[in-house]
Design goal:
- The complex is a heterodimer of chains A (about 190) and B (about 80).
- With about 190 residues, chain A is an alpha/beta fold.
- Chain A has one domain: 3-Layer(aba) Sandwich (Hypothetical Protein Ychn, Chain: A).
- Chain A is about 50% helix and about 15% strand.
- Chain A has a 5-stranded parallel sheet with strand order 4-3-2-1-5, with helices on both faces.
- With about 80 residues, chain B is α+β, with helices and mostly antiparallel strands.
- Chain B is about 30% helix and about 25% strand.
- Chain B has a 4-stranded mixed sheet with strand order 1-2-4-3.
- The chains are: A alpha/beta (about 190), B alpha+beta (about 80).
- The interface between A and B is medium-sized, with 16 and 18 residues.
């Protein structure tokens, strides 16, 4: 009988300890969420955005990346050819990188040799490729929000964006709201 | 825990993430943690130096117990206990 009582007390103590841990966790955090505004279209900056996002998602932090301006180039799918663009849109489309494989480095680009070298080094050091990073991000439920306004400005169309499971379109207020709720915000 | 105690642990799951760089080992650990029971011990093998700092951070955030790290030849064995 006494042994049984002891066992229940021990179980209760364990439960209390667990609850205490949970409370500390709640106190320490605002919403366990990371909001990133990514406006750079450089390979290095997109890489950093994805690596930080993946690490956060692996730690069960909800991640929302708001893609805007030059960063939108990384979301273009080179296999898709949208119709009905005007002249300026066509020009922008032609001059900007068509997809994440075509991004250049912010430093040491050396007319495209730099990115090739970085990709080689990434393979050599077992770093996931950008393609694999996007795939993993999708599996982990990382949300990508495309800025409608800058997409329109640069003449990109929804039809040329990559197939990504958690892609949506919104405006700046969505980022501001998400960022306000998040424990961490980044601007890349 | 001493190195000997760590090596003698009864490991329920071993995650070999030596073929991936940051944040690969963490991603593999996250995948694997779902497959073990509350109270089970998991070891993560990683050749990435950052992992031995990252895993304790992950543990403290998620409420798991970080037990310690054993340095092997060219890689690390990181031990943790799952807490639901």
């Amino acid at each position: 009988m006494e042994e049984n009582n002891l066992k229940t007390i021990e179980q209760l103590q364990q439960q209390i300890d667990k609850l205490q841990k949970k409370i500390t966790k709640l106190e320490n955090n605002r919403k366990d969420q990371l909001s990133i505004a990514c406006v750079s279209g450089d390979l290095d900056k997109i890489l950093a955005t994805m690596i930080i996002s993946l690490a956060a998602a692996a730690m069960d932090t909800k991640v929302k990346i708001f893609f805007s301006f030059w960063a939108l180039s990384a979301l273009r799918d080179p296999k898709k050819h949208p119709k009905g663009k005007d002249l300026i849109s066509k020009m922008f489309g032609f001059m900007l990188p068509n997809g994440k494989d075509k991004l250049s480095l912010s430093k040491m680009n050396m007319a495209g040799i730099g990115p090739k070298m970085i990709k080689y080094l990434m393979r050599k050091n077992n770093v996931l490729s950008l393609e694999e990073m996007f795939k993993t991000a999708g599996e982990l439920g990382i949300e990508i929000i495309v800025c409608e306004m800058s997409m329109g400005l640069m003449g990109f169309k929804k039809e040329e964006m990559i197939d990504y499971p958690h892609l949506s379109y919104a405006g700046a207020a969505t980022f501001v709201t998400d960022a306000g709720e998040s424990a961490a915000q980044l601007f890349v | 825990m001493t190195q000997e105690e760590l090596k003698a642990l009864n490991v329920a799951k071993s995650v070999d993430a030596r073929g991936t760089a940051c944040p690969g080992p963490l991603l593999e650990a996250k995948k694997a943690i779902g497959t073990i029971e509350d109270g089970d011990i998991m070891e993560i093998l990683s050749a990435d130096e950052g992992t031995k700092v990252d895993i304790p951070k992950w543990c403290s955030k998620q409420g798991h117990d970080y037990l310690g790290t054993v340095e092997e030849n060219g890689y690390y064995k990181i031990y943790m206990r799952k807490n639901e």
